[in-house]
Design goal:
211 residues; alpha+beta; Alpha-Beta Plaits; 3-stranded mixed sheet; 3-stranded antiparallel sheet; 7 helices; 8 strands; elongated; binds iron/sulfur cluster
Length: 211
């Protein structure tokens, strides 16, 4: 029937309008900004950098590998690598970004930087109230503005963050096991060398070496 869709649409609108007086679920709008719809887990806006612990400099996960900078389609990430290194979460010395800026006036929220980062160092934020009257400087976010703690990530993306945390905890355990195995191998090597030296001394009729 001609116009059937319009009639159905008007009926649905009327049903929601009248129903909203008795059923809160039929209210499709809220009194923003006093009221807000909770954002879904997968909501995303612009990227931010993650750090562990309380110190954004010491705990920053980014190792300045430049992968995200190269893969970003509109090329709105600007990184300068440090000249020195700092230990990462498993104690391995790594470079860090002396400069890490994102021009969010250009960023298209594609999340490619997140997908390609091998270090779980960059994630998508949900913050959307970002209006500014500074078209250029105000939208070029620096490392300081981009850095947020892991607790923040756990709050805005709890499921994703739990997966990342579990994987990183596994990596820490693997690194500890590797370090313990290396220490045991070194100790065995030293003991073997000492034993060989003792055998040589005994063969030569000398006083056995100590240690
Ligand atoms: S979300 Fe996309 S456009 Fe924005 S910084 Fe990341 S890769 Fe670039
Ligand atoms: S955010 Fe990730 S991909 Fe980008 S430079 Fe840092 S470690 Fe590399």
């Amino acid at each position: 029937m001609l116009g059937e869709g319009i009639v159905k649409g008007l009926f649905e609108t009327a049903r929601n309008f009248l129903g909203s007086y008795v059923d809160k679920d039929r209210l499709v709008t809220v009194q923003y900004p006093e009221e807000r719809h909770p954002l879904p887990e997968a909501a995303r806006n612009f990227p931010f950098l993650l750090y562990d612990g309380d110190d954004p400099e010491a705990g920053l996960r980014c190792v300045s590998c430049h992968i995200c900078e190269k893969e970003c389609p509109p090329r709105c990430i600007y990184i300068e690598k440090s000249t020195d290194k700092k230990p990462d979460f498993v104690g391995k010395p790594q470079f860090y970004p002396a400069r890490f800026d994102i021009d969010v006036s250009v960023c298209m929220s594609c999340q490619i930087c997140v997908e390609v980062c091998p270090f779980d160092a960059i994630r998508m934020d949900k913050e959307f109230e970002l209006s500014t009257d500074d078209r250029f400087g105000g939208l070029m976010w620096t490392k300081k503005e981009l850095s947020k703690p892991n607790e923040y990530y756990q709050k805005i993306h709890p499921v994703e963050a739990a997966e990342t945390d579990a994987r990183r905890a596994e990596d820490v355990e693997k690194a500890k096991a590797k370090a313990a195995a290396a220490a045991a191998a070194k100790a065995a090597e030293v003991a073997k060398a000492a034993e060989a030296a003792r055998a040589d001394d005994e063969g030569a009729g000398k006083e056995p070496s100590k240690g």
